[in-house]
Amino acid sequence: MIKSMQDIVKRAQLLEKKTVVVAVANDEHVLEAVHMAVLDGIVQAILVGDATEIKQLMFKLNMDAEDYKIIDLPDQLKACDASVKMISENKADILMKGMVDTAIILRAALDKEFGMRTPNRLSHVSVMEIATYHKLLLMSDGAMNIAPDVEIKQEIIENGVAIAHALGIKMPNVGCIAAVEKVNPKMQATLDAQELIIRNQNDRIKGCIVGGPFAIDNAINKEAAMHKGIVDPMAGDVDFLLMPQIESGNVFYKSMMFLANAKSASVIAGAKKPIVLTSRADSKESKFYSIALAALVADHQSYS
Questions:
Q1: Which helix (H) or strand (E) segment is 44 a member of?
Q2: Could you tell me the fold of the domain covering 123-259?
């Protein structure tokens, strides 16, 4: 059972080594994270971008350039296109964002010419190790989908469940988060939760158990749930938090990182292969854990 970031790393080390391609790789923290993953035997790396700048950073970080394939493409658009093309040609298993705007790399990833798209919507899934919670906690979407309706929320759940399965969580508890734990016709998040539960019960959403609506306290704390008289066995034991909109997810994620000292890994799910697209504010450790998580996801996708 995977219960921590270190467990994710250990599991990734047991897999066949994956190849990560970094688009516009002249980013110090990204290179540090990639170097950690290479040294741990999780990945081999292809670095695409301005070769001169990349090598200067590698020298600063005591990285041996001979251990990496470096492709000199200073133009960011061309670097992103070349990186995604390598993914589509099965020359790499994981796409990672370097020093480039998110919109540019996603434009390449979503280009039909490169075949990385699937019928699924892309969504951002975070996995967090929080000292005060008894297991890993997944959360979506705090970075991509701004105000998802119930159809988009279903796709976000399906993407998150796929990540949970890659972590060995066979039947994850999905908690639909709202401001209250009762259905209120004036609060769309509660109505969406009600509809998603029905879809889950009717087998339209598979591989998980959907519950809610939950306020955040009774989703992750059994005592809070008991105090409010909530008898749902999922209360206080969710594996995956479905956030009502991007603001909720973003605030929750950053609160956990900066106030609770949580450890995290994040991937973009919904494409043919995982995308590591971390924030520039994320630590090198978080980026490293994200690479390890992406290795597990890539391996799981290869057998799905």
A1: strand 43-49
A2: Isopropylmalate Dehydrogenase (3.40.718)
Per-residue confidence band for 113, with pLDDT thresholds at 50, 70 and 90: confident
Whether 28 shows a pLDDT value over 90: the answer reads yes
Residue 153: the pLDDT is 98
* Entry pTM: 0.95
Mark out the alpha helices in the chain (DSSP H runs).
Answer: 5-14, 28-39, 51-60, 76-88, 102-109, 150-166, 188-201, 216-220, 222-227, 246-259, 284-303
- Ranges of each domain in the chain: 5-117+271-303, 123-259
The band of 219, judged by pLDDT with boundaries at 50, 70 and 90, is very high
Strand order of the sheet with strand 123-129?
69-72, 43-49, 18-23, 94-97, 275-276, 263-269, 123-129, 137-140, 240-242, 173-177, 209-214
Fold for domain 5-117+271-303?
A: Rossmann fold (3.40.50)
Other C-beta atoms lying within 10 Å of the C-beta of residue 109: 26
**Is residue 304 pLDDT above 70, yes or no?**
no
CB atoms under 10 Å from CB of 198, counted, come to 12
> Six-digit token pair at 203?
């087998």
Query: For 6-11, which contacts have Cβ atoms below 8 Å and span 24 or more sequence positions?
Result: 8/127, 8/167, 8/265, 8/289, 8/292, 8/293, 8/296, 9/40, 9/42, 9/289, 9/292, 11/296
Closest CA to 167 of 288, 293, 20: 293
Q: Which of 37, 17, 20 is nearest to 83 (CA)?
A: 20
